Amino acid sequence: MDATDAQIRLNIAPLAANTSLRTLAYDAIKKAITEMDMYGQDGDIRLDERQLSQDLGVSRTPIREALTVLEQEGFVRSVPRRGIFVVRKSKGEIIEMITVWAALESMAARLATVRASDSELTELRDVFHDFEDEAPAEHMNEYSDANIRFHQTIIRLGGCRMIGEMTENLFIHIRGIRAVSVRQENRSERSLQEHRAIIAALIARDADLAERLVREHTLGLAAHVEKHGKFPS
User: Fold this and answer.
1) For 137-196, what is each residue's pLDDT tens digit?
2) Residue 88 carries which DSSP code?
């Protein structure tokens, strides 16, 4: 194994007996990849097939089958004589992905002003309730999680199934990028203020403003990555 490679043990639970072990293994591994800090580590992230088999409590056959599907979908890559690695995007690819996300989420925000109920829009405030009296920087892990939930919620409240499907696979990388960037250059405080402005526009059902604020907020992330991001070349 190359000295720069990082072999990662995913946070993963054993599978219950089921006739479709490949599907269960696929879901479990994909979920674990989504939740890992893929852009907060140096070097390639190698998956251990044997360890996955032990953690999931199944033979290596459904693990191999699940990894094959994940490779076809672009989440992992197989390198001859080296192993299976989590795919991390280049800086240019990341900026393009953020741009696509900005377009999709801003449209979801516009739709949410029409489709979401008053209670659903008001509940967006609760996502950041814990940060009313304390700065986000004092609880970065919790704020990072809240930040991700906020953007997922806007997608959901837009009520467009296709937007949800299109953002699902982007989310694996967007989540990791946001988790890293929110800790840089006091972005958490600025992020919180922008979130509050977006929530106010949604509650006011101002579609034009909500769409613009979400788009500008996400494109701000793209600009930050362009300036400060250190990702695979």
Assistant:
1) 666 677 778 888 899 999 999 999 999 999 987 887 887 777 777 666 667 788 889 999
2) -
Both structure tokens of 203: 């509650």
Domain(s) of CATH 1.10.10.10: residues in the chain: 6-86
Amino acid, single-letter form, for residue 55: D
State the pTM of this model.
Answer: 0.73
Nearest to 49 by CA among 4, 3, 2, 9: 9
Residues near 147 by Cβ (< 8 Å), separated by ≥ 6? 178, 182, 188, 191, 195
Could you tell me which of 161, 154, 177, 169 has the C-alpha nearest to residue 226?
Answer: 177
Between CA 139 and CA 65 the distance in angstroms is 39
Task: Select the CATH number that applies to the domain covering 91-228 from these four: 1.20.120.530, 2.60.40.10, 1.10.1060.10, 3.40.50.300.
Answer: 1.20.120.530
Q: Cα 81 from chain centroid?
A: 30
**How is domain 6-86 classified at the CATH fold level?**
Arc Repressor Mutant, subunit A (1.10.10)
32-81 pLDDT, tens digit per residue, is 887 787 777 777 889 999 999 999 999 999 999 999 999 998 889 999 98
Answer yes or no: is pLDDT of 5 > 90.
no
